[in-house]
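S1.2 Input.
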Amino acid sequence: MNEHEVLLTAAKQARENAHAPYSNFRVGAALRARSGRIFGGCNIENASYGLTLCAERVAIFKAISEGERNFEAIAVVTDADILTPPCGACRQIIWEFCGDVPVLLANLQSKRESLKMSDLFPKPFDSSSF
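S1.3 Output.
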């Protein structure tokens, strides 16, 4: 199994833990650190949607909280017919902590796409902005 397959499999597994009682839209993410460690994350909804966390942010925050700072790629898996890229807030967080990494998108029907973060977030706001 190649590195992308491993990451996509981890994202699919993380999706199984999603807590999405309001939207029923379950998302899984997996982040690979340069150390080789993989951190999974799932979306966790709250009745007050503003308190909901996306799968991508959960994975990144888990990795950061465990001391990782360098990342190679992130995968996002949903069951939507159309591949689902990270939301705007997640794009900002991915750029801030991961830079121009590959973003692997997939669904449960085996549709896949790989994009660079700079394709999803062409004019980022970061420390070079001020």
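S1.4 Remarks. The mean pLDDT is 97.
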